[in-house]
Amino acid sequence: MSTLEATDEPIHVESESHLDELIAEHEIVLVDYHAEWCGPCKMLEPTVAEIAEETDAVVAKVDIDELQELARNQQIRSVPTLQFYANGEKVQQVIGVQSKEDLVEIIEQAA
Fold it and tell me: Strand order in 11-12's β-sheet?
């Protein structure tokens, strides 16, 4: 890893290029597409924070209202949507609230 950015808590994505950078620089990245008005997103938030703290994955949070074009480019149709990247390649995408165990398993398989 080339950056010293703290990765034990979710990183707020500021632009499409910022997301591309995170995916390129880190081995495992979990991208959480969410919205402030989304109830299930709020339910998932503590789980995503724990994953950032407890696993080697970097967690990137994308507010779909703030970054509408990025969400459109990624064909995000509903939130929460979670995308998993390993070595710069998208390996899996899940939609809706997931258990922490299931998410950690995907990360471990991707590693």
Answer: 11-12, 58-63, 28-34, 81-86, 89-95
Q: What is the pTM of this model?
A: 0.93
Task: Give the helix, strand, coil percentages of the chain, each rounded to 5.
Answer: 40, 25, 35
Q: Looking at the annotation, which residues are catalytic? A: 38, 41
Q: Measured at the alpha carbon of residue 36, what is the angle toward residues 107 and 68, in degrees to the nearest 5?
A: 80
* Domains by residue range for the chain, with CATH: 11-110 (3.40.30.10)
17-55 pLDDT tens trace: 999 999 999 999 999 999 999 999 999 999 999 999 999
User: How far is Cα 26 from Cα 37, in angstroms, rounded to an integer?
Assistant: 29
pLDDT tens-digit map of 85-100: 999 999 999 999 999 9
